[in-house]
Amino acid sequence: MMKFKSLTLRIWFIISVIIFTIVFIISLAFTFIIKHNDEDKATHSLHLTHQLVLNSLTQNQFNKEIIGFVNHQGTYHFVFDKQNKQITFITGNEKKSDNPLMIKMGDLITNNDHQSLKETINDQPYLIEISHITDQSFLISYLPLDNKQNLLQVIMIGILVILLSLPLSKVIANNIAKPLKQLEGYTKRIANKEWDHDLDLKSEDEIGRLAKAMKEMKDALKLADEEEKKFLQSISHDLKTPVMVIMSYAQAIIDGMYEDSAEESASIIKNEAVRLEKKIKQVLYLNTLDYVLDNDKEREDVYLDKLLTYLIANFQAVNPDLSWILNIESKPAVLLGNPDRIRVSIENILENQLRYAQNIIQVSLKDSGSSWMIEIRNDGPLISEKDLNQIFKSLYKGDKGNFGLGLSISHKIVNFYHGNIKVENRNGQVCFTICYPKK
């Protein structure tokens, strides 16, 4: 099977082969039809002239008009004496050089009845009619069949059609391959992150839909590239600050230039190191979360009512000045998943609430038909409309945000377990709602 590196050549070759096959089949069909029609016409013409000559001979009315008509039809007629094998020319069309041929036709006489034959003599097909005149004399009429000329005409027409179709098929191939070449160039520009270049394909067919999908892919990649740059810039800034503080205080201790005591400086260094460690852990956790979730095949029962009770008790110990209200309306509330991941998704929301709440944090667990609904509210400042739309994006921080990773991690985990998470300002409070599907 032939292989082409160029799609245009491949399409052109396929179209050419199809056209050639069609022309070949049609040529064969026409050759058969023309041959059949020509043979029918020749048979009719031979039979007509044979009867005319036969009647003229038997009635002694043979004249120049009849000879002219017979000659015009292109048929040949002679009288053959079977006993003496003598040939008598009638119309004047016959040639003496054809005597051996005529003798072979005379040898075909089998009886005194009328014979209609199709015979091949010396590789030439003939239509032959033989009629009895007297005891040993017969009228033999014949007409050579020449199909080669018709076949040659059909072949020439077929070749002409094929030759004319070659440039046409090339135009069609170029027309099909042109948008694909545009898509190829567009893909290379996307690979090189040339986001400003656009693709001008307005067709509504499969190629047009592919172009539209590639545009959507470009927009998604562009957004991901921008978010990656923001991520790196934010990480660089967040890591740079504690590192600078640690280095400054450490150098001050080494040089003996610090104002506070060594213990206070060491405590600051430790706090910054803890903050730095937490940041690094969250970054690593977020970057590996997709892989961990996809490859975490072990699922078990997670009791949300018990988990919420445990988490509220822990956070209450962290900040006992806040009023924690837990309302569990239905138990047991069971879902199927990884307990550690589910815990992190709720814990991050509670940490966020802890930073913004002024006096009260309310947590409720409700039965919402096919899912369990967790609502976490606080009486802190409301979230602006701008922040509501972006709060679950990686590294997006509000006014008192820590690292901008916790809510993004919660969002990924909840979505992985086919749940949903949202935040809204409701009745003067900030309300986070998490829905997990029931077991």
UniProtKB/TrEMBL annotation:
It is found in: Cell membrane. Residues 234-439 form the Histidine kinase domain. GO terms for molecular function: protein histidine kinase activity. InterPro entries: HAMP_dom, HATPase_C_sf, HATPase_dom, His_kinase_dom, HisK_dim/P_dom, HisK_dim/P_sf, HssS/ArlS-like. It catalyses: ATP + protein L-histidine = ADP + protein N-phospho-L-histidine. The chain crosses the membrane at residues 12-34, 151-173. Keywords: ATP-binding, Cell membrane, Kinase, Membrane, Nucleotide-binding, Phosphoprotein, Transferase, Transmembrane, Transmembrane helix, Two-component regulatory system. SMART domains: HAMP (SM00304), HATPase_c (SM00387), HisKA (SM00388). The keyword Cell membrane applies. It is an enzyme of class 2 (transferase). Signal peptide: none annotated. Residues 174-226 form the HAMP domain. Its main location: membrane. Its EC number is 2.7.13.3. It is a multi-pass membrane protein. PANTHER family: SENSOR HISTIDINE KINASE CPXA (PTHR45528). This is histidine kinase.
